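Regression test case RT-17, inverse folding.

Input:
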């Protein structure tokens, strides 16, 4: 099949249909994949999709030209929950705050999602959020908590305090927060801000470390599902290919889980890619195809006669 044929088809095919298929498949994956405990954890982040100068329609944000994929990710079930594709110039927090809020969930995101009004909405919905404060955010210390020896040794926690925002920002976020400071492996300090007053400081640090899993998701999809080169140059074609990659990721995870495969995700994806046109159960995809049986002399004679 010619590449131009695929490009024309992707340019005309509506990407909204694939977006709806992704949303429906994500719900299926939520039921098919296991969950650790009853806690609902959501990671929010965005990744740039760089495009070449041939895509003149793509916006330039000062660093790259292209699009941006905004994802809400469930690390326990290993599934992207929500996906939105925007121009590279769209701020991350604008997309994050219009995602549906799941009451009682815990949201983890970086300091690109600073919006005190949105944080207040999360708090009112019974949600916990774990993030990093910007360096210039004014905080007033209300209480200094005692750091346990276990948190200080295993999680490298240096301080744990109850704080609140300064008077100007307090109107948009009139709640008390916790500021946990830990020492990273490179020796630098990392401050974490949360509205969770119940968990230990070590648990708060562990939650923020889980944010690395969504970075691994972005890297895996870009490298192994070919989101670095595109079949078409139109905006619709590129959006469709990004959504199709997310659909493929969900299908691979569901298939591997239901077939109880113990292979690595990359190895499983390679086997599926090389045997797409073989009619065999997914559970048997690891087994080599059966070798043809040697034919008897009678079968060879019949073949010669019919020929």
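Golden output:
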């Amino acid at each position: 099949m010619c590449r131009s044929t695929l490009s024309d088809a992707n340019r005309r095919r509506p990407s909204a249909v694939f977006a709806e298929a992704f949303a429906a498949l994500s719900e299926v994956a939520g039921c098919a994949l296991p969950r650790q405990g009853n806690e609902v954890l959501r990671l929010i982040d965005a990744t740039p999709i760089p495009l070449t100068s041939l895509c003149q329609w793509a916006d330039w944000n000062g660093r790259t030209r292209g699009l941006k994929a905004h994802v809400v990710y469930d690390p326990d079930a290993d599934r992207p929950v929500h996906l939105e594709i925007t121009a590279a110039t769209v701020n991350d927090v604008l997309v994050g705050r219009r995602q549906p809020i799941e009451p009682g969930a815990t949201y983890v995101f970086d300091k690109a999602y600073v919006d005190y009004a949105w944080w207040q909405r999360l708090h009112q919905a019974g949600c916990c959020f774990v993030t990093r404060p910007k360096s210039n955010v004014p905080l007033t210390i209300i209480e200094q908590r005692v750091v346990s020896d276990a948190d200080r040794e295993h999680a490298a926690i240096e301080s744990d305090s109850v704080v609140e925002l300064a008077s100007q920002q307090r109107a948009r976020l009139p709640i008390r927060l916790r500021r946990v400071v830990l020492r990273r492996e490179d020796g630098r300090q990392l401050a974490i801000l949360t509205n969770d007053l119940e968990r230990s400081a070590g648990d708060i640090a562990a939650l923020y470390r889980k944010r690395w899993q969504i970075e691994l998701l972005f890297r895996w999809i870009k490298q192994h599902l070919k989101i670095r080169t595109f079949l078409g140059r139109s905006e619709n074609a590129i959006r469709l290919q990004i959504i199709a990659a997310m659909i493929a990721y969900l299908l691979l995870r569901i298939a591997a889980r239901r077939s109880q495969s113990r292979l690595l995700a990359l190895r499983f994806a390679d086997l599926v890619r090389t045997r797409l046109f073989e009619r065999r159960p997914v559970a048997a995809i690891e087994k080599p195809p059966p070798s043809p049986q040697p034919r008897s002399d009678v079968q060879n004679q019949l073949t010669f006669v019919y020929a």
